[in-house]
Amino acid sequence: MEKGGRNIPRVLALFLCNFAVIVALYEIPAGSQEREIVVEDFHGYSSTIFTRWLIRDAGKKEASSTYRLQSDGGNWYLAADSKRNSIQIARRVTWNLNTHPILTWRWRGRRLPTGGNESAGSTNDSAASIYVIFQRAKVPFLPWDKQPINVIKYVWSTTLPVGRVLHKSKEKLGVTIYEGRFVVLQSGNGRLGEWISERRNVLEDYRRLFGSAPPGNPILIAILTDSNATESAASADYDDITITAR
Ligand SMILES: [Ca+2]
Ligand SMILES: [Ca+2]
Questions:
Q1: Tell me, what CATH number does 123's domain have?
Q2: What is the pLDDT of residue 31?
Q3: What is the DSSP string of 169-221?
Q4: Which of 93, 140, 162, 193 has the greatest number of CB atoms lying within 10 Å of its CB?
């Protein structure tokens, strides 16, 4: 008890500044009868996406130069161009995973981080990634975005083969603050430049990857195109993040 009490301010400090901006939760009603719910199609923004997306570990200027809205034939999408940086952006969203377990999206790899290999810290960069983030535990006094999380990260890897799963975790002050499972969905440069549709049953993935039911519904969907570890550059586009009933 004493240990926990002493740790709380330090844990708080560790988590400070993870997300620079708090935006409204996009909550899909638990009883939603809609079969398909579009979480994000990148339409309806006046300029920046950071009215709805949170920026992790970066200033707005750098995030805005890394993630930009682009249009092609009237369709808006997110273009990501990372130069030696790693800026995760996240949309605060929750929905009933039991009724709507399927997550779909489209992405288009454009440039692979040189030598990217997510299994080692020194090369942990991905041309594209989509995260589904769950709150694992409830630590008293920590705000929602600072709580310990379990994460599924779907990646487009430079070198790892499709289907590879990686286990990651971070522990601080005796608390496992992060449990991650990386799943390689695309690999290498064979399909660069092509829009690819992905479809995942997140509920099944979670059970398979963590060996148990999720601790609750997801709290965030996040995006990362990064190139900091390999000190190179990476580019990808994203669109049509959608939740679908089983
Ligand atoms: Ca779109
Ligand atoms: Ca990285």
A1: 2.60.120.260
A2: 66
A3: EEEETTEEEEEEEEEEEEESSTTTTS-EEEEEEHHHHHHHHHSS--SSSEEEE
A4: 93
Q: How far is the CA of 39 from the centre of ligand 1 (A)?
A: 11
Distance 238 CA to ligand 1 centre (A): 8
Whose atoms come closest to the Cα of 118: which ligand?
A: 2
Relative to the alpha carbon of 71, which ligand is closest? Answer: 1
Q: How many domains does the chain have?
A: 1
Q: Which domain holds residue 168?
A: 2-244
Cα–chain center distance at 210: 17
Ligand nearest to the CA of 77: 1
25 C-alpha to center of ligand 1: Å?
21
Identify the nearest ligand to the CA of 239 by its number. 1
The pLDDT mean for the chain works out to: 89
Query: Considering the entire predicted model, what is its pTM?
Result: 0.89
